[in-house]
Amino acid sequence: MNQLDIPGMIIFISAVVCLLLALQWGGTQYSWTNARIIALFVISGVLTSIFLGIQIWKGDYATVPPRLIRQRSVAFATAYSFLLGGSFFIIVYYIPIWFQAIKEVSATKSGIMTIPLVLSLVVFSFISGGATTAFGYYVPFMYFGSILSAIGAGLLTTFTTSTGHSQWIGYQVIYGVGIGAGMQMPMIASQTVLNVDDIPVGTSVIIFAQTLGGALFVSVAQNVFGNSLVKGVLQGSPGLDPGYVMQAGATDLGSIIPSQHLLAVQKAYNHALAQTFYVSVALSALSIVGAAGMEWRSVKGKKVVVPP
């Protein structure tokens, strides 16, 4: 029990919760200048500072041992995972909503329609993992993943209410290949640069960063989506209450929204989702900074487990 960083974990979780609430409520439920939102940001910042202090104080017994983050490749791999994870979770969360709202399919069918994304991701994860083992270097795949996922997410922003099968399948495949190429490389990097005893902690930090990036940036994307949708409904259907549209949800648009407003609402949904996908584009593009900071180390001669 003495080796568990319980105070650090409690403080960090509290900081993340405050930040998520601020990102979720800001600009929608409350204005960004509202005292509640400002207070949440301030509290999150203070708690994060305390958490960092605890990590330095606890040293090797910290939740995130400082000596791991001081290792260049681990630090940049963590940043890469944080950004690419954010990009990925946004797309996975909002692509089905596009199918439900624009193509008027059920939640189940919208999940089936994301198979091109999932399948290309899985297949290229195996290909890139095997290629890394064969050629020895993982950094090129990190660059490739950043560039291709940014291109794929950028193509997704071009969706319209009349986008056909070839486009929504092809664009998902491009994005999936990019994510599949890059997503597992930070974990391979941590196994390459760290001592055997540090690998479990290093891998855990990278996986946590990926999950945290998803949680934070999905909240950011939700804010962008909500604000864009409200604005689009007000412009396209002035007589329709945006709150009514938000409450209706994507799956039931066709049955709840009056027919004379349906096309305008679908266009508003499409525009709002496109704006949301831009967040994913930015995150994928920024992740190249993580790739640029990596050391060029070969995995050959190392006992590396390629993640599935």
UniProtKB/TrEMBL annotation:
Location in the cell: Membrane
Residue stretches spanning the membrane: 6-25, 37-57, 77-99, 111-131, 137-156, 168-189, 201-221
Highest taxon above the source species: Eukaryota
Main subcellular localisation: membrane
Parts forming coiled coils: none
UniProt protein name: Efflux pump antibiotic resistance protein
Entry-linked Gene3D superfamilies: MFS general substrate transporter like domains
UniProt key word Signal: no
GO MF annotation terms: transmembrane transporter activity
Keywords assigned by UniProt, alphabetized: Membrane, Transmembrane, Transmembrane helix
KW Cell wall biogenesis/degradation (keyword) present: no
GO CC term (a single one): plasma membrane
Entry membrane topology: Multi-pass membrane protein
Species this chain originates from: Aspergillus felis
